[in-house]
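Audit log entry. Action: structure prediction of a protein-small molecule complex. Ligand: flavin mononucleotide. The ligand was supplied as SMILES and no pocket hint was given, so placement is left entirely to the predictor. Protonation state taken as written. Sequence taken verbatim from the request; no trimming, no tag removal. Recorded inputs:
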Amino acid sequence: MDFDTGSFRKALGGFPTGIAVVTAGQGAEAKGITVNSFTSVSLKPPLVLWCLGKNSSRYEIFTKPEEFTISILSEAERAISTQLASGPECALTGLPLVETANGAPGLAGALTILECQREAIHEAGDHIIILARVLRFTSREDGVPLLYFRGRYGALAV
Ligand SMILES: Cc1cc2nc3c(=O)[nH]c(=O)nc-3n(C[C@H](O)[C@H](O)[C@H](O)COP(=O)(O)O)c2cc1C
């Protein structure tokens, strides 16, 4: 089937997701990217994945380090999601951060912070799939997740 990429993208937008920010690097060098491709994969061993566009100007930033951090955003972090989706500026300067043992900071208002070590990179068309093992995590019981659906942000009505 030969179909229009824009229509395909729009169709896939009918799948509602959360939003995560992947961070890599340390201190003033730390960078972030907004993603909705994050997925949990395995409990034992603890594995998660996310996908990175091959044409991203941040490709090297997120494929070089073996360790990175994933923050699952709360509704209150919508502006951070927008900021870290607007290339090419992806520094974390000025954002509320929490330190992690692996060096890549987490976002202070996140619902869950996962400290990850890369397990594998799989080729996947115009993206790569980055599979990672979770080494440590912190998680809040409260808070409302930031959601994304049909190209727009939203929140759970709870
Ligand atoms: C809601 C949302 C979800 C996104 N999910 C992904 C993703 O899963 N993987 C990805 O590589 N880029 C994703 N992006 C795009 C990046 O956040 C960012 O906009 C893009 O990498 C900018 O291009 P650059 O990396 O060349 O600067 C997403 C953007 C938005 C707004």
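Audit: result stored. The two ends are 41 Å apart (CA to CA). The domain at 20-91+106-150 is CATH 2.30.110.10 (Pnp Oxidase; Chain A).
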